[in-house]
Amino acid sequence: MDNLNYGLIGNCRSAALISRDGSLDWCCLPQFDSASVFAKILDQKQGGSFEIITKYNYEITQSYRANTAILVTRFSDGENIFELHDFMPRYHKLSGKYNAPPEIVRYIKYISGAPKFSVQYNPRLEYAKGQTKHHVKNNFIVSLTSNVQYDTLFLYTSFNKNHVIQGEEITLREDGYFLVCYHEKIFRPSTEKIALELERTKIYWLDWVDRTPTYKKFNAEIIRSAITLKMLTYDKTGAVLAAPTTSLPETIGEVRNWDYRFCWIRDASMVIKVVSELGHKNSARRFLQFIIDLMPDKDEKLQIMYGINKEKKLTEKSLDHLDGYKGSKPVRVGNAAYKQKQNDIYGILMDVIYEQLNKFSNDIENGEELWSITKGIVWIVSKHWQEPDKGIWEFRGEDRHFTFSKVLCWVAIDRAIKVAKIFGKHRKIEQWTAIEQAIKDDIYAHAWNPSVDAFVQSYGSKDLDASVLLMESYGFIEARDPKFVSTVKAIEKDLSNDGLLYRYKNEDDFGLPSSSFTICTFWFINALFKIGEEDKALAQFEKLLGYSNHLGLFSEDIDFKTKRLLGNFPQAYSHLALIECAINFSKKHTEEKILETIS
Q: For 458-487, how does the pLDDT look when each residue is reduced to its tens digit (9 = 90+)?
């Protein structure tokens, strides 16, 4: 089955996708949201790629080096064997800062025999909008475009540069390398220096994973997902990307193709909550600073999303010259959703602020600023919670009173009260408690529909929505409350399709969704676990893990019929929910083992 069989490499500055057979098919330099230099994933002919080509008798296997973001593709015909170690350098410098240059290293490790391969090196700069020309110089190959916008890319290699650019066969006798750089190097690289970069990057990731707790069940899946989330954080500002790609479609041949190389407040806050639970509080600290920097005015309303460098305007446009993934047009850059109003973001942000203050209250920076943000959020929510919005799924039609948005408005006030208790601001608590109760009463009065025996998508509707499964996770309702249990059952009956969940089934701006939104299935599994159907939840979880690609990575969506991965990839949302589920099962497993030991 044709699938998103790619590995992700990255260094918290940018990222790249490497196909199962070692082709570099997507990368933007010098940072995540820059124009692409390789984009074969979006156009097989024009997009540009960097391919390692062997004869048909070579078997190709691929895996990550354990507990790292280093991707190893192994080529073997039995006697002649070599490995391709792909990574983007990241490690501590003597100054204490990180070295994370806009570079891709392709280290060729000789194993045995006299393996032969050729290279197809074809970068297409600036989204392949104009012609890219290649020039062989003394120390490097430079690729240049100037038709639309001037840009350059440099390739350093230990192999014959003319053979590389002409695609001639290379016989491997010893280790070698390719180094793709956005900037020309001051000091000429060597195989020895590149091998050192590989070791330093390996040690960085091993150290990072070593600071992550070890779980008794699903530890490998948790670690791989955690590394993936780390690669989707932008070190410079603390932003967290939804995904490193644009325009990978939710359904092949349709127009649900969006640019996800931005920081959604909702996605990022959920990621940070999970990452901090794994013990990585520096990521949480940087994200909180990102939010503080976005809110200079006390009455400034948050956008739902921002650029990774805090840009507020994310103008959406189409790249009509690109065919799109599997012919799925249009290819979009920018995202018009930044203009949308979504009231849930305040609750999600307040939840992460409270979590950080609660966990790290003795080691928290910017306490005064966080208290100002808390008061500002309460002021905004108290003024606007009764208004309709676009909801979590960003409906582009009319605004509605979405249940999830109302619940998260309640969360905003609930967590603000908890923050007030931490800071000893008792006079605010009584005032805010009245608002909290008013929102809760409103939800019970208008979101519960007795005819379907469930909390519904929006006030006055009969439509079900997977997002209401989070009511329990956020503490709005108890897991064993009959209303929540019956909501879970109703959602299973209406939205489950062979164990995969629709977000919703009512038609949206683009018709009925035909793929499962991956995170919704994880939410459903968690809900089953919480209401006591733990064996069923575990079986569903293990089945869902089987739908990942060969490296354990998930995209945004899964096709109901074929189970192929769809949508932008890899998706932060999917991996944070995987971690939450896996931790629940692991904790349950640990508790059971303790009880067995006691008895």
A: 999 999 999 999 999 999 999 999 999 999
Contact call for residues 367 and 422 (beta carbons, < 8 A): no
Q: How far apart are CA 392 and CA 376, in angstroms?
A: 22
Query: Are residues 283 and 193 part of one domain?
Result: no
Four-CA torsion 221, 224, 227, 233, nearest 10 degrees: -80
C-alpha to C-alpha distance for 264 and 445, rounded to whole angstroms: 30
User: Residue 564 maps to which CATH number?
Assistant: 1.50.10.10
**Domain for residue 470, yes or no?**
yes
Please say whether the beta carbons of 357 and 350 come within 8 A: no
Give the strand pairing for 6-10 and 15-19: antiparallel
Q: Fill in the amino acid letter for 123.
A: P
Residue 401, CB-side half-sphere exposure with 13 Å CA sphere: 15
Yes or no: say if 48 and 123 are a contact pair by the CB < 8 Å rule. Answer: yes
Q: Dihedral sign, CA of 430, 432, 434, 440?
A: negative
Q: Tell me: the pLDDT tens digits for 315-336?
A: 999 999 999 999 999 999 999 9
Is the overall model pTM greater than 0.85, yes or no? yes
In a domain, 1, yes or no: no
Token digits of residue 103? 């570079």
Q: What's the per-residue H, E or C state across 121-179?
A: EECCHHHHCCCCEEEECCCCEEEEECCCCCEEEEEEECCCHHHHHHCCCEECCCCEEEE
pLDDT exceeding 70 applies to what percent of the chain? 95
